[in-house]
Amino acid sequence: MSVAMLGSAGASSVRAAQTHSVVISDTGTAFDPPAITIKAGDIVEWENTAIVLHSVTCDPALAKKAADAALPAGAAVFDSGKLAADQKFAHRFDQPGTYRYFCKYHEEMGMLGTVVVVS
To answer: How would you write the pLDDT of the chain (119 residues) with one tens digit per residue?
Structure first.
């Protein structure tokens, strides 16, 4: 599930979601950090600090190489669409497992990232 707006948790026993940042570097060909580990329910926000278009895509059907995209069984694919300079995209990760994602425009240049979600 991609995140447009987040609500607050209703029960005090529920752990509040944390937001983790990933920056698309000024070099335009890397996610920084390239891999992160978060807890289920946390949010990752990507920001394009480069001057060229990028995407954050986790959809095996859109990958040029099968190994560049993966997600746990039952998890929904996601795609930021075109991210221009200074634009952000956020996604909430509810299902534990490993998510491999890529930039549709720079996949062949090795612009790949990984999110590991633990329970």
So the answer is: 444 333 333 444 567 889 999 998 777 789 999 999 999 999 999 999 999 999 999 999 999 999 999 999 999 999 999 999 999 999 999 999 999 999 999 999 999 999 999 99
> Which residues on adjacent β-strands are paired with residue 19?
43
pTM: 0.85
Q: Which amino acid is at 81?
A: G
Task: Count the Cβ atoms, other than its own, within 10 Å of residue 119.
Answer: 8
38 and 21 Cβ atoms separated by less than 8 Å: no
Q: Between the CA atoms of 105, 21, 118 and 111, what dihedral angle is there, to the nearest 10 degrees?
A: 20
**C-alpha Rg value of the chain to the nearest Å:** 14
Residues 6 or more apart from 102 whose CB is under 8 A from it?
57, 58, 63, 68, 69, 111, 112, 113
